[in-house]
Amino acid sequence: MSNLRLKILKALLRVEDGSYSNLLLDSELKKIEDQRDKGLFTEIFYGVIRNKLYLDYIIDSFSKTPLNKMDKEVLTGLRIGVYQLFFLDKVPARAAIYESVEAVKMILPNSKKGAVSFTNGVLRNINRKQDKLMLPDKKKNPEKYLSVKYSYPVWMVKKFIEQYGMEKAEIILTAGNRRPEVIYRHNSLKMERNQFLELLSEEEIEYENTFLDSFFKLKKINNPADTEVFKRGGAYIQGTSAGLASLLLDVKEGMTVLDLAAAPGGKTSHLAELMNNTGQITALDISAKRLRLVEENLERLGVKNVKLKKADAVQYKDEQQYDRILADLPCSGLGLIASKPEIKWEKDQSVIKEMAELQYEILNNNLSKLKNGGKLLYSTCTLSREENQKIVDRILEENKELKLLDLSQKLAQVSSLKMETENKYLEILPGEVDSEGFFYALLKKVESD
């Protein structure tokens, strides 16, 4: 067992150094055979990342040594131990402390025996005095209270309160700490719906329907990329909010479509499926490595109508005029915290301004490629008005030939969601809808007289 805690400790240190949690977790789980160990690894690994600020608050409350004076291995080991003490009822306190201390002992050199004793002492102290932990006063300092309780940086808490009010902000914060869902999109280019559902049944994969007809929420699945239906191209792993973007773009067979930021290929392949492999989709990405990933996905899914191009969308030149443009652009990602919890710790407020400028530059460079009567969908997976509503407002102000379309009718056609569209935009908030946070705006180029 201590070996499992050691693996978790090493993996968490790699996330601290910049590794993507979801990719790292996939690679680590492949090395573990026992299903219970897989489950425990996932629980502690994601639990520590999600609750890092809260765990540090607890450690800091019971340790005489400041956090910044601790070895990173010791601090990570303490987080693993405290997470188990506070969140995992099925792990006895004695085992949680012993296994965490052993992991620290195994990763540190013999010359640091004092650090191992320190880890043991702090964890035992916390276990004895758990009921004495005091959170910041909610009335005197609501931002600090929410920051600690839900483990988010204060600047992010303030932003959510400022934009949505206290009640909605707390709903968003709560939803961001839930385990992410695993969703299969049925890919009709490779198999009929009946065959897709039969394969799920054969592999005893339980599922629930979602607000999108061809998207299915899976229950209790260890590796969704290791099933027969996935390997045969009948399924793609994609969130419902991401899937909604392609549906709102309103593509038809035979159209020309420009996808400005294609990787990893989920929306590109979905558009190809909606167009029944007709017409042509030109799909851009700035990274050759990410384009190879798109290519692999398109091949597995049987997509034939996509032309991939390595290009920076800020400078991309193209004389062609397109019926549709998908501008699902890079963003701060504040809507994806449930599935990528490290976003909380990797981003600061400056990223919002940087992303907003990048989004504006990409849109500004590509609006001329839209045909008269053509439509452009702008979408992001973030909850920041600077990157969402304000960008669209700026684009509309500067381009009088563009008109903002009301998405409510299209939303009713493609989904079972019952939502009000605010000023014609659509914003999905985690917790209010059982999905990732997303923003959508559909623009139409009005035909000139």
TrEMBL record:
Q: What biological process terms from GO does the record include?
A: regulation of DNA-templated transcription
Q: Which UniProt keywords apply?
A: Cytoplasm, Methyltransferase, RNA-binding, rRNA processing, S-adenosyl-L-methionine, Transferase
Q: Which SUPFAM superfamilies match?
A: NusB-like, S-adenosyl-L-methionine-dependent methyltransferases
Chief location of this protein within or outside the cell: cytoplasm
> What EC designation does it have?
2.1.1.176
Subcellular location(s): the record lists: Cytoplasm
What residues form the catalytic site here?
381 (nucleophile)
Q: Tell me the superkingdom of the source.
A: Bacteria
Tell me if Acyltransferase is a UniProt keyword of this record.
no
| Start and end residues of each SAM-dependent MTase RsmB/NOP-type domain | 172-446
Tell me the PROSITE patterns matching this sequence. SAM_MT_RSMB_NOP
The top EC class, named as a word, is transferase
Positions of S-adenosyl-L-methionine binding: 261-267, 285, 312, 328
GO cellular component terms, semicolon-separated: cytoplasm
| Molecular function terms, GO-annotated | RNA binding; rRNA methyltransferase activity
Annotated catalysed reactions: cytidine(967) in 16S rRNA + S-adenosyl-L-methionine = 5-methylcytidine(967) in 16S rRNA + S-adenosyl-L-homocysteine + H(+)
Biological role: Specifically methylates the cytosine at position 967 (m5C967) of 16S rRNA.
Family the entry assigns: Belongs to the class I-like SAM-binding methyltransferase superfamily. RsmB/NOP family.
The protein depicted here goes by the name: 16S rRNA (cytosine(967)-C(5))-methyltransferase
Question: Per the UniProt entry, what species is this protein from, by scientific name?
Answer: Halanaerobium saccharolyticum
